[in-house]
Specification:
With about 475 residues, the protein is of the alpha/beta class. It contains 14 helices and 19 strands.
Length: about 475
């Protein structure tokens, strides 16, 4: 185990196990709050940046950006290409083209930043400001020692690692298995002007594109800031169990193969966006620009104990593993980190089970529960099917409601009050000022979505 930048200990000490963006964000916040802080990582800083894939697209909206600003951190809104809305297309059985709507973000923007870039910059700042960075594997036995030596210990090792130290919250954990297989790849070659995805929206490349297939899964393209290539685009796909998409995703074994699979997917299923996809190319300098896998959505208890009984807190994906379909993972982790830092900065007593448990309960009430519910909405959870049906149809009828739907990704809290179809109708009426029945009576199936006529200079003539 190696150590760099040791500093003298202050009155209170904190340990963060895990050097992803959430763990490093909490660490730099605690350092600013007067703690002596140590980050423990199984990889050195260079390896964290260059030898692993990004953990996801990490799309963040205004509330999360405000949390970062509250910690004195750069939210990347001036550096990353901005998302100003979300364009949705929904295909039903037999791929029938049914619903299209375009929601504009009102008063906020989204940015998707390579988690490796953000964590690297924040880790550099952390070390420059006197934080200690320790490299080496953290076992349960070592965690016991770490927790004994620090006033506050937080575990931010993600969905694997030490997460089993925290019991699953069965009341909040709805699924016993992943709901989708995932594939992501980051690409270059496509700009962000109004001519890009112009068939979807007058905003063009400023709006990300989301396509939902009832029998296959979901596909998303969005502007992205890559650690090496800068402004780029990211694809993220979700394949339903047993689908053709799942079979295709499973064959990916490199950035090149992932890009080919995505291109063929759009050729065969989502041809309305195909010209833009054909204009993209792999980021050759980053062999880790792709990732496949699956996430079982799990909510864990926020407090665990080591073998000797020392209390530790769960942070980020260690606490709640979200399916990334609604972009809640990175957002919730950073919001949780900011809330913990703010509470710890003014706390005079011990960081015991009661204190950690209370902070976690507050976070669940303020964000976690609502974030889980909006994730279930976009996963087409049958329990929310009647709600989704009304919401998406109303979005197709009136762009004001389309914007209200996509705002739930930014502020999901209102969805907690929408339990039934009647609640959904009331919500629609509240946004639009007329009965939901009147709105939905105006809905007409799309019939056929507009097709792209994009002809960028890098557009290829075939999927090969």
């Amino acid at each position: 185990m190696t150590s760099q930048n040791s500093v003298s200990r202050s009155t209170r000490s904190a340990a963060i196990v895990g050097a992803g963006q959430t763990g490093v964000t909490a660490a730099i916040g605690l350092l600013a709050a007067g703690f002596t802080v140590t980050i423990y990582s199984d990889r050195d800083q260079r390896s964290l940046r260059d030898d692993v894939p990004a953990t996801g697209t990490a799309l963040e909206f205004g509330v999360t950006q405000q949390a970062e600003i509250a910690l004195g951190l750069d939210p990347f809104t001036a550096r990353a290409p901005r998302h100003t809305g979300l364009s949705v297309r929904i295909a039903g059985p037999d791929n029938a083209e049914l619903i299209g709507f375009d929601g504009t973000f009102d008063g906020y923007v989204g940015v998707a930043v390579d988690t490796r870039l953000k964590a690297d910059e924040r880790l550099t700042a952390f070390r420059e400001r006197g934080g200690e960075f320790v490299v080496g594997p953290v076992t349960l036995e070592l965690l016991d020692t770490i927790a004994a030596e620090h006033d506050l210990t937080l575990v931010a090792t993600g969905r694997g690692g030490l997460s089993d130290l925290f019991a699953v919250d069965d009341a909040r954990t709805v699924y016993d298995a992943p709901q989708r297989s995932l594939l992501t790849v980051t690409v270059k070659g496509l700009g962000f002007g109004p001519e890009v995805f112009a068939h979807r929206s007058v905003a063009g490349g400023a709006h990300s594109g989301f396509s939902i297939f009832a029998e296959q899964g979901e596909a998303w393209w969005g502007p992205y800031l890559h650690k090496d290539a800068g402004p780029t685009w990211a694809f993220l796909g979700w394949a339903r169990p047993g689908s053709d998409w799942e079979r295709r995703f499973a064959a990916a074994d490199s950035a090149e193969s992932a890009h080919r699979i995505v291109t063929e997917l759009y050729r065969d299923y989502i041809d309305w966006d195909l010209p833009e996809v054909l204009a993209t190319e792999v980021i050759a300098e980053d062999p880790h620009s792709w990732l496949k896998g699956a996430v079982r959505p799990v909510v864990r208890e926020g407090v665990g104990r080591t073998a000797s009984g020392h209390v530790v807190g769960a942070l980020g994906d260690t606490a709640i593993a979200y399916d990334p379909i609604a972009g809640q993972g990175a957002q919730s982790g950073l919001i949780q980190a900011q809330r913990l830092v703010a509470a710890a900065a003014v706390h005079d007593g011990p960081f015991d089970e009661a204190w950690l448990g209370a902070r976690y309960a507050e976070f669940l009430a303020a964000r976690g529960d609502a974030a889980n519910r909006v994730t279930r909405l976009f996963l087409s959870d049958p329990e929310l099917g009647a709600i989704a049906e009304q919401f998406f149809a109303a979005g197709a009828v009136d762009p004001r409601f389309a914007s209200a739907v996509v705002r739930l990704l930014h502020e999901p809290q209102p969805l907690l009050g929408v339990i039934s179809a009647a609640d959904a109708a009331e919500y629609i009426a509240g946004v639009l000022g007329e009965p939901a029945a009147d709105v939905l009576a105006r809905f007409q199936p799309a019939g056929r979505f507009a097709r792209s006529e994009y002809a960028g200079e890098l557009t290829r003539t075939s999927a090969g």
